[in-house]
Automatic annotation (TrEMBL):
Transmembrane residue ranges: none
Keywords: Lipid-binding
Name of protein: Fatty acid kinase subunit A-like C-terminal domain-containing protein
Pfam families (alphabetical): DegV, FakA-like_M
PROSITE patterns listed in its UniProt record: DEGV
Residue ranges of every copy of the Fatty acid kinase subunit A-like C-terminal domain listed in the record: 34-307
Length: 342
């Protein structure tokens, strides 16, 4: 929390912010924070004055500091709801920077590190905020663009906000975590753990795996310390793999045995999705536009899975989502009878 912005970001902050030590010193968390997330935003051409913003934001947390001028303001606040802060700010100006740190997780690690092995994953993995904190998981947020606004996945956007934006037919895209977020996380972990296991979303679905691999090489981190694993999975399946990794690490096995078990589990994890609306997949290019539109016209509800390399594949479909779900259940019952489910 409270790290100074690097490179180009520093140049766009007014002098008033640069002189304010609250923004540029590193926070050392000596007691449990009242709010979980340290959040920072820079808003350009705000329609609200500094004092008005303070009154509107004060109820959302503590350690609120706002500084800047008419052209842009920087907001620093400790809050449990960074998504609500962004939702308010985007109504009053253009948000050109956002950063959210999990202070509660940092505090828990400083007081009671549960393992000498850290687990890092990305926000594609379906994990609850409580599980992440309880098991000290580090999550790199993907970037989500909705219309002209950017969000940090699962930090400054939640399912309710996503649905509201989606219903407005705004263009939505996702992109890999920022270089800054990857580098900052590795800097934080440096010296705190003997080993770091990174479990990324399928490299066939996102550039996240390649980005992390490149940053590990750029920072000259030894392969004996950081172990990058392509999950070849996504969503719930990726989250399940992370949960299994937590369990294996808790058994205090040698690192080689842990890595081998995780790799073996990847081959046994699968995911079936009964797609209700093809529009997002068509817009993102994951389904060819022509085929997607044909499927929509005949009210086809496809069943999507992942192949062994982590590519999306079509494994069936029906003319209603309920029937697609029935087909998925039949596949699961079949796997259960053959003893393939654990």
């Amino acid at each position: 929390c409270g790290e100074s912005l690097g490179g180009q970001q520093e140049k766009i902050i007014p002098n008033k912010i640069e002189e304010d030590k609250t923004f540029i010193k590193e926070h050392f968390i000596s007691e449990a924070p009242k709010n979980r997330y340290c959040s920072e935003f820079i808003i350009k051409e705000s329609q609200k004055q500094e004092n008005d913003l303070k009154e509107l934001l004060r109820k959302w947390g503590d350690s609120l500091v706002i500084a800047g001028n008419k052209k842009q303001l920087k907001i620093h606040i400790h809050t449990n709801h960074p998504e609500s802060i962004l939702a308010l700010l985007e109504n009053w100006g253009t948000i050109i920077y956002q950063k959210v740190d999990d202070m509660q997780l940092q505090y828990e690690i400083s007081q009671n590190r549960k393992s000498s092995i850290a687990i890092v994953t990305d926000s594609v993995a379906d994990l609850s905020a409580d599980f992440i904190l309880e098991n000290q998981i580090f999550v790199l947020p993907l970037n989500i663009s909705v219309g002209e606004q950017n969000f940090l996945d699962k930090l400054t956007i939640n399912p309710q906000i996503f649905e509201e934006k989606y219903n407005k037919n705004l263009k939505m895209t996702t992109s890999q975590p920022s270089i800054q977020s990857v580098d900052s996380l590795f800097s934080f972990l440096e010296g705190k753990y003997d080993h770091i296991i990174v479990i990324s979303v399928s490299s066939q679905l996102s550039g996240t795996y390649q980005l992390i691999k490149q940053r590990i090489r750029e920072k000259k981190v030894t392969e004996n310390q950081v172990h990058l694993i392509d999950s070849k999975l996504n969503s719930v399946a990726q989250g399940l793999l992370v949960k299994q990794a937590v369990k294996i690490i808790s058994e205090e096995k040698p690192i080689e045995a842990i890595l081998n078990e995780i790799e073996n589990i990847i081959d046994r994890v699968f995911i079936y999705v009964a797609v209700a609306d093809l529009s997002p997949m068509i817009n993102s290019g994951r389904i060819p536009k022509f085929l997607g539109e044909v499927a929509q016209k005949i009210s086809m509800h496809p069943i999507i899975s992942l192949d062994k390399r982590g590519n999306g594949k079509l494994i069936g479909g029906s003319f209603s989502q309920a029937r697609s779900m029935d087909k998925i259940l039949k596949k699961l019952f079949c796997c259960q009878k053959k003893g393939k489910l654990k």
